[in-house]
Design a protein that fits this description.
7-stranded mixed beta sheet, 463 residues, 24% helix, alpha/beta, globular, 9 helices, binds S-adenosyl-L-homocysteine
């Protein structure tokens, strides 16, 4: 039997759900972060369980043919990218297998019930993210640093030039914004936030770039009421190409949540705009907007294809964000009702409908699991209670049971489920499958190259 600190050589034969390499030695399964399928590696055992263990990669003895040189210097330490050392084709295979296995194991569907199409690759595998969130802190030498959290911790890995960020016209806007803020803090003697002592001012910086419009918004999250000499900082930030919206978000809570409830505008209208296909969107800092615009268009087209609209349909778009999917659907439907919990996103959605001249949509504010059952019990004869299609696009935790039950009672012809977590997707599909719906087809979409995350669109049809 192996014990902590034992060193051994193993060949990696599989990939775990978090992208870790899996190797087998007599009767024992090893999980090894940063090892790639096909690698022969020397590892050190860190933690043992009955018949498996977690081990640390010490040396790649024979590299796998799927191994590539990570483009980012801090790829191993940073918690953002788990798969940078894996070639893109293998990343896609890993994601397909992850979705398929979850649907089978957690969803309890047989192979013959799973109609899965090949994954849609991302048109860009680097420089695809339109949003960055940098924590700001201090390093061991007491210098101000910004970057990303190391996996599962809150220690900041210094990195100004994340390789995933969009660089409009080749300019690394994220790095420019962060350097400007850091220099300003150093000159003004402004302290970054310290979690331990709950002191210091600057906690996070959020940057969002409109891929088509190249508009940039900067939101600085602070543990206080204002930034001293903010006027000067504003002027420096405005020198960076595209920056047109600057705000300060107040978060004085001692918690893990990045943003607080109040945002004060330093410059600009409080939002940026972007286009997807021909539709124009307004996006506020608190609103969700898909991070990979290149794949998002492909995802929405797939969702639209699965909705199979003729122009007569009544549709619910649950978890509607700023109304992106709703507005795409509305162009081919009779009516769309969107439901979203974040108030800023709901007001963005209403304005987005207006600026695109789309009148057959309505947006309701609140939790889908409250709004939809209430609507159904209070207006049983309303048009909305007999929808043709329900689209859901929940966060990772999936749909609430109460919501799923009401959806089933509403008895739509089709349910289009857009998911960013195939485990909760599988759980929810399992319930739908036991309640009169069958999986017609599904397609994974790679929205997050270099990471273990994968998006999936599923069409469930009434039996
Ligand atoms: N469909 C949109 C948003 C998807 S992200 C798009 O593609 O852009 C999920 C959205 O669900 C977020 O906007 C989040 O604020 C919202 N949300 C989270 N919990 C919710 C709930 N219980 N009810 C309604 N909306 C919720």
């Amino acid at each position: 039997m192996y014990q902590k600190n034992d060193e051994l050589v193993v060949t990696i034969t599989d990939v775990g759900t978090n992208g870790e390499g899996i190797g087998k030695v007599t009767g024992f399964t090893l999980f090894i972060k940063d090892a790639i399928i096909g690698d022969e590696v020397r590892v050190k055992i860190m933690k043992t369980k009955k018949n498996y263990a977690f081990a640390k990669l010490l040396e790649v003895i024979t590299p796998s043919k799927h191994r590539v040189e990570p483009i980012c210097e801090v790829a191993r330490q940073c918690g953002g990218c788990q798969l940078q050392a894996m070639d893109y084709e293998t990343q896609l295979q890993f994601k397909e297998a992850k979705v398929y296995n979850n649907i089978k194991r957690i969803g309890g569907l047989d192979s013959c019930q799973i109609e899965m199409h090949p994954i849609i690759a991302s048109p860009k595998t680097l420089n695809y993210r339109n949003k960055a969130q940098f924590p700001v802190g201090k390093n061991a030498d007491g210098n101000i640093v910004y970057g990303f959290y190391a996996g599962r911790t809150h220690s900041i890995i210094e990195s100004g030039d994340c390789k995933l960020g969009i660089c409009p016209d080749g300019v690394d806007v994220n790095a420019k914004v962060m350097e400007t803020i850091k220099t300003f803090m150093e000159v003004q003697g402004i302290e970054p936030y310290d979690e331990e002592s709950h002191s210091g001012l600057v906690r996070h910086v959020l940057i969002r770039i409109g891929e088509k419009t190249k508009q940039v918004s900067v939101c600085i999250v602070i543990n206080g009421n204002e930034i001293p000499n903010a006027e000067y900082l504003t002027q420096r930030l405005l020198e960076i190409p595209g920056v047109c919206d600057i705000s300060v978000n107040i978060n004085k809570e001692r918690n893990n949540v990045i943003m607080g409830l109040h945002t004060n505008q330093l410059y600009g209208p409080g939002y940026i705009e972007d286009y997807m296909d021909e539709v124009k969107f307004r996006i506020s800092p608190q609103s969700f907007y898909q991070v990979n615009p290149y794949s998002t268009e492909l995802l929405y087209r797939k969702a639209l294809e699965y909705a199979d609209l003729t122009g007569k349909e009544i549709i619910w778009d649950l978890y509607s964000g700023i109304g992106t999917i709703s507005l795409f659907l509305a162009q081919d439907a009779k009516k769309v009702i969107g439901v979203e919990i974040v108030p800023d996103a709901v007001s963005d959605a209403k304005i987005n409908a207006e600026i695109n001249g789309i009148g057959n949509v309505e947006f309701l504010e609140g939790a889908a699991e409250d709004i939809v059952p209430k609507y159904f019990s209070e207006n049983p004869d309303a048009e909305g209670c007999k929808p043709d299609v329900i689209v859901v696009d929940p966060p990772r935790k999936g749909c609430d049971m109460k919501l799923l039950k009401t959806m089933i009672e509403m008895n739509p012809e089709r349910i289009v489920y857009v998911s960013c977590d195939s485990a909760t997707l599988a759980r929810d599909i399992s319930l739908l499958s036991m309640s009169g719906y069958r999986m017609k087809e599904m397609t994974p979409v790679d929205m997050f190259p270099q990471t273990v995350h994968v998006e999936t669109v599923v069409l469930m049809e009434k039996q």
